[in-house]
Amino acid sequence: MSIMAMPLSVASKVTLGKSEFAGKGIKSAAPSTRLAKQNVRFAIKAAGYEDELVKTAKSIASPGRGILAIDESNATCGLRLSSIGLENNETNRQAYRELLLETPGLGEYISGTILFEETLYQSTTKGKKMVDVCNEQGIIPGIKVDKGLVSLPGSNNESWCQGLDGLHSRTAAYYKQGARFAKWRTVVSVPNGPSELAIKEAAWGLARYAAICQDNGLVPIVEPEVLLDGEHGIERTAEVAEKVWSTVFSYLAENKLLLEGILLKPSMVTPGNGSKVKATPEEIANYTLTMLKRTVPPAVPGIMFLSGGQSEVEATLNLNAMNQSPNPWHVSFSYARALQNSVLKAWKGQPENVEAAQKALLVRAKANSLAQLGKYSAKGEAEEAKKGLRTCTARAAARKHSKIIPVVSSE
Fold first, then answer.
1. Which of 45, 126, 208, 246 to pair with 198, CA 20 to 30 A apart?
2. 70 forms bridges with which residues in the sheet?
3. Among residues 201, 265, 314, 381, which one is catalytic?
4. Element (H or E) spanning 119, and its range?
5. How many angstroms separate the CA atoms of 398 and 63, rounded?
6. Is residue 386 among the annotated active site residues?
7. pTM for the full model?
8. Record's Gene Ontology CC terms (predicted)?
């Protein structure tokens, strides 16, 4: 069932006159249809949260702002901490995330932050709830809800994402705790196919997760990451990404998602990280936006790109290239490594370096804010910002030689 062919229902309403896209349709309709004076009702299930979902999504997708992703699992956060010689324990994870969220002025550039469950229920060392720290900055708290990747039986060494069991009760609890959006990350591997089984499993899982989130008041971030691993060219990445997103939106329609109340978190369309042919930011922007315009309805408020192993500067340059002309949606960022790399190196786990680390975060946040507005320049960027975390390369190598999909998040 296509997006445009959804049956009419009284289950929920969307006032099309407030949508720029739908508004154009209304203007072109014959006066006798009287659509301009009516509320058109689609078969959408969001359990009475429709207005709040739309408001939350629009707030996150606001000009010059994006998402800070700090939802690394304990294992992945441990990789971040070990890169600066710190032990992976709750005290150190708390100190690091407190440093990030308490950065003065962060809300000017960051509209939302994705938290791990530990952080959502955690307080700072001074006793203030992390959620309250976010809200005071004007940053909407979100929550990672998937349970990681495991091997997909019957596939070509591909994976599927766990976490649907118990998700309804968990999302209700997360909403009560203060979260207002959620993230579910699944992945697709280009070198391993991808098989039809893997694509359908990824897309269906995302659609079910998204429907459950909207039923409990959380804006779902839909994230089928096309992994960078491989020697393929940019054309092959674009082909796979278009197939994946087409399938995702088919299943979103089947599950009656309110598109105005979701956000997307795609990977940029780039060559595989082992390709001998590199692409310029302009080429990446062209391939990425062409693919998205073919698959993503303009009703979706925001596309928040993941950095996916790119260096800080690469991710910012590519985002900037995508905002050189108007897009049907807010095109922004939801970065983890591409915002944190310089921060970790400045902090080094030392209390006396907190201010320097927070300044490093503001530098990266402001750079990506400018990129969202199409006004970024790489002139004057530090050499360190052009490098990625060592753990990214190490983890990619581990994946290449392992038949078991690690249950960690790369973003």
1. 45
2. 115
3. 265
4. helix 117-120
5. 38
6. no
7. 0.83
8. chloroplast
Q: What are phi and psi of 331, to 5 degrees?
A: -110, 115
DSSP string, 19-51: -HHHHHHHHHS-GGG-GGGS---B----TT-HH
Q: Give residue limits of the domains in the chain.
A: 1-43, 46-400
Phi, psi of 89 (to 5 degrees): -140, 170
Q: In CATH, what number does 46-400 get?
A: 3.20.20.70
Check if 200 is active-site: no
Token readout for 404 is 């078991």
Residue 195 has, within 13 A of its CA and on its CB side, a CA count of 13
Q: Which of 50, 117, 201, 223 is catalytic?
A: 223
Other CB atoms within 10 Å distance of the CB of residue 115: 28
Q: What is the DSSP letter of 8?
A: B
DSSP 267: P
Count CA atoms within 13 Å of residue 248 on its CB side: 31
pLDDT in tens, 333-384: 999 999 999 999 999 999 999 999 999 999 999 999 999 999 999 887 766 5
277/380 Cα distance (integer angstroms): 27
Cα–Cα distance, 74 to 85 (Å, whole number): 16
pLDDT tens per residue across span 69-94: 999 999 999 999 999 999 999 999 99
